[in-house]
């Protein structure tokens, strides 16, 4: 990564390869301002189940790597589906590994829930991120309902309203992360 560019760490809440959520993060990485460089985390399933007994001075190495990427980023993007009116367990798990730290405290985040409905998942993600003191507002949150009908197989946004909303989200996130801390 270019050291002069601000780093954005992106997390897909889906473990499915080439999911709609991954495609949205790819779209953002291709349309974000040149002052940012996006790294999409693709190893969600490799994070072990959260265990408070292991959350000590020597947590599992992959957890340390994950936390360090969040800490080093100027901003974090999370794009997740909703499973059974909730967050996917794998996403909630990685966020639980961050509760005992301050990696999200005052961290600028963008939150997207892209699913069939997504309302409950978005509520839960917002609540969790507020609890761990992440910084976001209404302009850096986006709910995309019926996502499968709004993307083609190559990840192109086929719904004009979704495209407009996503581009506005990107602009708001860029502005938020571009501001001095």
Automatic annotation (TrEMBL):
Domain NADPH-dependent FMN reductase-like, chain residue ranges per copy: 7-131
InterPro entries reported for this sequence: Flavoprotein-like_sf (IPR029039), FMN_Rdtase-like_dom (IPR005025), NAD(P)H-dep_reductase (IPR050712)
Coiled coil region boundaries: none
GO molecular function: FMN binding; oxidoreductase activity
Domain of life: Bacteria
Pfam hit, one: FMN_red
A GO-annotated cellular component: cytosol
Signal peptide: none
Protein name per the record: NAD(P)H-dependent oxidoreductase
Protein's organism: Flavobacterium shii
